[in-house]
Amino acid sequence: MPAKPDVTGLFDKRTGSIQYVVADPETGKCAVIDPVLDYDEKSGATATIHADALLKFIADRGYSLEWILDTHPHADHFSAASYLKDKTGAPTAIGEKVTEVQKLWKGFYNWPDFPADGSQWDRLFADGETFMVGNIPVRVMFSPGHTLASITYVVGDAAFVHDTLFMPDSGTARADFPGGSAKVLWKSIQDILALPDETRIFTGHDYQPGGREPLWESTVAEQKAKNIHMAKFRTEAEFVAVREARDRTLPMPKLILHALQVNTNAGRLPEPEANGRRYLKIPLDLLDAAWD
């Protein structure tokens, strides 16, 4: 039987994101997955409220932080990976296909000197690679489609799938970001649903359909039986047609142009300019708008 890690999700209402602490109950060693750095787009203010809550939780539990993990460069919130590394010294990691996302966005931001080699993280994981959290092995599964770099971390009986699958009443990730593909997403979802039925699925966002309380844990069996996309659309062709039609109606995430320049740099904010302030760079007319 696979090990059963202790999993705690901390919900960020502002972005609908869930950041996780996953711990080996035997050793007390843990990893953080998809930590959030607070950013208010109206004022331009940043804060570490949610990242500090993670650190407090880890300290209160007496855990030892071994890894700071991201599943992909996020489009709707800033990663707190760099902040947590500075505070704890724990290594950061992400999937090795992040370099493809870096190369894409390097061009979009006109950053000729930006190193698109993944060197901003301490470790780049290959598909199928394993590492340890305490005594629990973690397997890396590439899960592209939502983005070029999306991965799933399978930690014992728990799979952290981020945007690939949402809760069953919310369906699946959009696939219309630069580098996304509904066809590739279908294959990634099939790989996740091939895990044992009792595997716990932890998603990275919840948008509370119908105003319900935020939820982020299901199982493979529940996803196969109840996911509003996967239970209804049984073939790749059906899924791709419906997913692409739905994506054409969706506005871009409000922070995508803000977040990618931070998250392709492992959560590092832009360097201060001569006046001591940091500035984000927003390319105009890069992405299509849903004007209606």
If you had to describe this structure to a student in words, what would you say it looks like?
By secondary structure, the protein is α/β, with parallel strands linked by helices. It has one domain: Ribonuclease Z/Hydroxyacylglutathione hydrolase-like (Metallo-beta-lactamase, Chain A, 4-Layer Sandwich). The protein is built from 7 helices and 15 strands. Strands 1-2-3-6-8-9 form a 6-stranded mixed sheet, with helices on one face. It has a 6-stranded mixed sheet with strand order 10-11-12-13-14-15. Strand 4 and strand 5 form a beta hairpin.
Task: Describe the protein's topology.
Blueprint: E1 6-12, E2 17-23, E3 29-33, E4 36-40, E5 45-47, H1 49-61, E6 64-69, E7 78-79, H2 81-88, E8 92-95, H3 98-108, E9 123-125, E10 130-133, E11 136-142, E12 151-155, E13 158-162, H4 182-193, E14 200-203, E15 217-219, H5 220-226, H6 236-247, H7 256-263
Parallel strand pairs: 3-6, 6-8, 8-9, 13-14
Antiparallel strand pairs: 1-2, 2-3, 4-5, 4-7, 10-11, 11-12, 12-13, 14-15
Helix pairs in contact: 4-6
Radius of gyration: 18 Å
CATH class (first level) name: Alpha Beta
Q: Fraction of residues in helices? A: 10-25%
Strand order of the largest sheet: 1-2-3-6-8-9
CATH H-level superfamily title = Ribonuclease Z/Hydroxyacylglutathione hydrolase-like
SS field, number of helical segments: 7
> How many beta strands in the DSSP annotation?
15
Order of helices and strands: EEEEEHEEHEHEEEEEHEEHHH
